[in-house]
Amino acid sequence: MRADRAAGLLDIDEVQVFRSEDRKESIRLAEVHALRVRTRHDRPPSNQREQPFGPGHPWPMEAVIELAEGASGPRRRPLYMDVEGTDTREKVADLAYRLGSAMGLHHQRLVSGDPRRIEIEMRPEGGPGLATLPALDGPADSPGGRVSGAAEGAAAKLVAPPPDPTRFEGAARLTKWSLGDEDYS
User: Fold this and answer.
1) 131 class by beta-carbon count within 10 Å (0-12 exposed, 13-18 middle, 19+ buried)
2) Closest CA to 35 of 114, 115, 130, 159
3) Hey, which residues does 12 pair with through a beta bridge?
4) Contacts by 102-106 with C-beta closer than 8 Å and gap 24+?
5) What's the CA gap between 100 and 108, in Å, rounded?
């Protein structure tokens, strides 16, 4: 992936491993309405143990680019990434901010964050709940452990959207909710 603000393009070059085919796409940055970068959890096959995250075993991530797309509504373009050295939530946040900055996105919000996951949304225009994209202090060095102060701050916050009671199945009902404290009756 290569973001070039001067040319106004995001170039994506993916390899489809099973079919051994290259997929290339260029996206005009002016068409990007939002970018979400989040960690994802891929369960290993049942006969393998999960490896702890480390510089050689990065945290799997997903970047979802939301584009303007005619009458059918926005188009979402997912990118699945394993970036070497990106093994902590702080490093994921740092990569998200750097990618958003390279794409010319000026506003952001932490969508969710807890010890197991993080998701950051970035947009070119401001709006409710969005703050200015933080300035990045110095170059990136994920393998070396250097991240921006803004990324450390984002990773330290606990944020979770309230649960949707309509998605619960069964007799149990959610009567009260606060992050880290659930009471079922």
Assistant:
1) exposed
2) 130
3) 25
4) 102/3, 102/5, 103/3, 103/5, 103/10, 103/29, 103/32, 103/35, 104/5, 104/29, 105/32, 105/35, 105/133, 106/132, 106/133
5) 9
Q: What is the pLDDT of residues 20-34, one digit of tens each?
A: 788 889 999 999 999
CA separation for the pair 4, 32 (Å, rounded): 13
Can you tell me which residue has the tokens 């939530």?
89
Distance CA 54, CA 45 (A): 20
Listed by start position, the domains of the chain span 2-184
DSSP, residue by residue, 85-104: T--SHHHHHHHHHHHHHHTT
52-97: pLDDT as tens digits: 666 667 788 999 999 987 667 788 999 988 888 888 899 999 999 9
For residues 121 and 74, the model is more confident at 121
d(CA 99, CA 30): 15
Q: Cα-flanking dihedrals φ and ψ of residue 15, to 5°?
A: -120, 125
pLDDT in tens, 34-46: 999 999 876 666 6
Confidence class for position 51, pLDDT limits 50, 70, 90: low
